[in-house]
User: Which sequence fits this backbone?
């Protein structure tokens, strides 16, 4: 496997030459997804959760897992907790400024956050594997006004471990008024698809 | 199965029943024939050979699972051939349907061979010793003596003695038969079952295990959750919530290199200081990760597989706002000097998106006017950058490598390629901003593997070996005793023995010892000395001495006596 024999001193070096490049290149493709992975690396699609293309799931009222009580600090340094939004429908988006599909869906998310605010739908982001300056720049570029929790160590993503864990970036979760996860989207979502799904969760005809 | 077999062999198809029956028996017979073919040793060997052959492209062609970058490269250099190879799953050989077909058939073949054998072995291990043959003198090893005991009590004491020596007994009128060495069958059974367990364990790993990779910069952390992994290859039944919820922080990394001699620049040691939590809220522990010393958390092994440099860069755009400030992992392109290459993308720079392609030299020296790295340690780190502006192609949603610039929509900026020392800046033309090289950080890459079949496979492997050794070392051997009343009022006792397998020798001496013990216990006198015939294929053995009891008897070994 990729373990290296200790006795050959150059082993790590040699393996690093090949495997590191592999790892890194794969980071690139796998880390950010939702797009057409096949275009970059043929044959990889479907082998990894991270390389999921678009997939949405709706959970019936009885089958919904309770969302964890996530708290943390936002990119701009303020304290924020998911529980403070209880009573409203929450759209929780896991994103990164480096992730191309996240950039593609950002305008739709920003727009929906503004139009659906009147229906007590609140948006919140979780910024993954990002750097504060570039995250802030992203929010400025796409006019994203809702707050995002900074999650450099994946602690927030991990808190969803036993519920509906995000399996790709971007992942969007819709949490109903009682704090249960009602829907999940892997991959870049479009305005109409997300609008339909949110409407379904808040109990209006799509 | 046996009933069905008889059915087909004893009754010609179609005679007993009408037309429909012919077809049914035909199908049945055909199935039986294919099953027999499949479970034959020859087929198993052919499949094993095919499995080995099928793995060859896996090491010749780049594999998606091991090196996706190489696959992409292969696509570029062989644009016509690559799609064909991809259709044949040759870039993911071990996940290919035809590869699965071979190993599933092999598994079926082995299971079909081993299971019936196992059932047979269970029967054989539970068998009672057979009746004693009428004429014990014809057995390979014989001895006889007379005793004052009655035939009944002579047999009784013989049975008791053999019983004490852990022989399995079977007694009848005027005879006792005893058998020992059932452990041989147990060993054989163990071997077969362990073989099945081994196959099963390997499958277990593929279904419930997973493999992942992650690159981590010193000072940063990650959790074992799919979004945090660079590469994630789950087994068939592994869901995103099935990952063990540990988290790791990389606190420091130290690489040491040989500084002189013929092995200069070669790495000596790598030490990565980690703190980790087995689950959220658990106590943080420390571990020094080294090559071949994986961190094991919750059954998951984390291996150190690589390292590199991440120059720390700050990019300020044309509006004067910092758009990037942090380390960017660069990929080493030359292990002996750790010359590394990387890319910095600033998609939110205003007025225009910025991109940089860089080369990092950890120990820069001037060689004839150009800078080169002379040593893998960061003794004199320099970063040289080429700047681009325009469209990075990221906003379309098309996933792209963070280690490559898509230069299609980019324009190279006319800036002097002056290598930067820590703290130095490069001003971009046209008021696009500045880029500052602040220093460097190191990163490690880790392989995370979870294979629940690993331990069972190890145990099964050892059990198979133990079973094999047992079945080679232990022999099944039988000892028969007959006692008849002789004319002089004494009782004539005949002892016969045979070893059922021609495994390791030594039965002759064991038999002689037993015969001596029996005679001694029954105060008998030998009519004929204990004799055993040597194995015909080995030729007559040299005289062997058996020490038994207070008085020693020479046991003569005669040649083959016509058995």
Assistant:
């Amino acid at each position: 496997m990729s373990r290296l024999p200790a006795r050959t001193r150059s082993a790590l070096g040699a393996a690093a030459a090949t495997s590191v490049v592999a790892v890194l290149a794969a980071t690139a493709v796998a880390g950010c997804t939702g797009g057409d992975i096949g275009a970059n690396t043929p044959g990889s699609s479907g082998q990894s959760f991270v390389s999921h293309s678009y997939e949405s799931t709706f959970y019936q009222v009885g089958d919904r897992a309770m969302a964890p009580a996530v708290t943390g600090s936002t990119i701009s340094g303020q304290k924020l907790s998911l529980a403070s939004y209880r009573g409203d429908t929450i759209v929780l988006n896991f994103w990164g400024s480096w992730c191309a599909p996240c950039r593609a869906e950002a305008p739709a998310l920003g727009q929906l956050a503004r139009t659906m605010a009147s229906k007590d739908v609140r948006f919140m982001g979780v910024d993954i594997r990002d750097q504060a300056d570039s995250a802030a720049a992203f929010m400025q570029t796409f006019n994203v006004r809702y707050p995002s929790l900074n999650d450099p160590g994946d602690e927030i993503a991990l808190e969803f471990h036993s519920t509906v864990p995000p399996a790709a970036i971007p992942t969007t979760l819709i949490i109903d008024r009682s704090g249960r996860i009602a829907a999940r989207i892997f991959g870049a979502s479009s305005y109409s698809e997300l609008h339909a799904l949110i409407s379904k969760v808040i109990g209006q005809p799509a | 199965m046996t009933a069905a077999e008889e059915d087909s062999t004893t009754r010609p198809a179609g005679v007993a029943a009408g037309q429909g029956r012919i077809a049914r028996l035909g199908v049945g017979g055909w199935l039986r024939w294919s099953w027999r073919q499949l479970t034959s040793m020859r087929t198993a060997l052919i499949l094993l050979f095919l499995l080995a052959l099928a793995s060859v492209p896996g090491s010749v062609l780049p594999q998606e699972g091991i090196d996706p970058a190489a696959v992409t490269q292969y696509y570029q250099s062989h644009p016509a051939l690559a799609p064909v190879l991809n259709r044949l799953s040759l870039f993911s050989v071990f996940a290919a349907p035809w590869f699965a077909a071979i190993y599933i058939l092999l598994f079926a073949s082995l299971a079909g061979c081993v299971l019936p054998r196992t059932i047979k072995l269970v029967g054989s291990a539970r068998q009672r010793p057979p009746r004693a043959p009428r004429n014990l003198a014809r057995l390979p090893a014989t001895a006889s003596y007379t005793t004052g005991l009655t035939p009944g009590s002579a047999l009784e004491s013989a049975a008791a003695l053999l019983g004490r020596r852990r022989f399995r007994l079977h007694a009848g009128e005027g005879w006792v038969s005893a058998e020992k060495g059932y452990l041989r069958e147990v060993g054989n059974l163990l071997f077969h079952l362990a073989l099945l367990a081994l196959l099963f364990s390997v499958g277990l790993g593929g279904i419930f295990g997973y493999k992942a990779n992650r690159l981590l910069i010193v000072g940063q952390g990650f959790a074992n959750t799919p979004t945090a992994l660079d590469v994630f290859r789950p087994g068939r039944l592994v869901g995103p919530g099935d990952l063990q919820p540990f988290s790791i922080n990389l606190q420091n990394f130290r690489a040491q290199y040989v500084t002189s001699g013929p092995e200069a620049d070669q790495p000596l040691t790598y030490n990565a200081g980690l703190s980790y939590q087995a689950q959220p809220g658990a106590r943080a522990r420390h571990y020094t990760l080294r090559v071949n010393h994986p961190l094991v958390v919750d059954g998951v092994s984390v291996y150190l597989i690589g390292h590199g440099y991440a120059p720390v860069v700050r990019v300020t755009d044309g509006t004067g706002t910092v758009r990037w400030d942090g380390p960017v992992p660069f990929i080493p392109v030359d292990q002996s000097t750790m010359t590394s290459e990387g890319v910095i993308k600033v998609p939110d720079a205003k007025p225009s998106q910025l991109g940089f392609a860089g080369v990092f030299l950890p120990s820069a020296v001037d060689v004839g006017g150009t800078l080169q790295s002379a040593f893998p340690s960061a003794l004199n780190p320099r970063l040289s950058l080429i700047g681009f502006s325009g469209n990075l192609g990221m906003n379309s949603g098309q996933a792209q490598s963070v280690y490559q610039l898509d230069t299609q929509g980019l324009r190279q900026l006319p800036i002097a390629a002056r290598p930067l020392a820590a703290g130095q800046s490069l001003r971009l033309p046209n008021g696009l901003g500045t880029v500052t090289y602040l220093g460097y950080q190191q990163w490690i890459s880790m392989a995370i593997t979870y294979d629940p079949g690993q331990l069972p496979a190890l145990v099964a492997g050892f059990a198979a070996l133990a079973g094999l050794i047992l079945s080679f070392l232990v022999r099944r051997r039988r000892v028969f005793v007959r006692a008849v009343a002789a004319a002089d009022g004494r009782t004539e006792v005949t002892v016969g023995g045979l070893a059922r397998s021609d495994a390791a020798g030594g039965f002759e001496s064991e038999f002689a010892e037993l015969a001596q013990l029996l005679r001694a216990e029954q105060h008998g006198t030998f009519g004929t000395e204990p004799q055993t015939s040597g194995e015909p294929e080995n030729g007559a053995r040299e005289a062997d001495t058996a020490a038994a009891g207070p008085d020693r008897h020479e046991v003569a070994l005669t040649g083959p006596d016509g058995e």
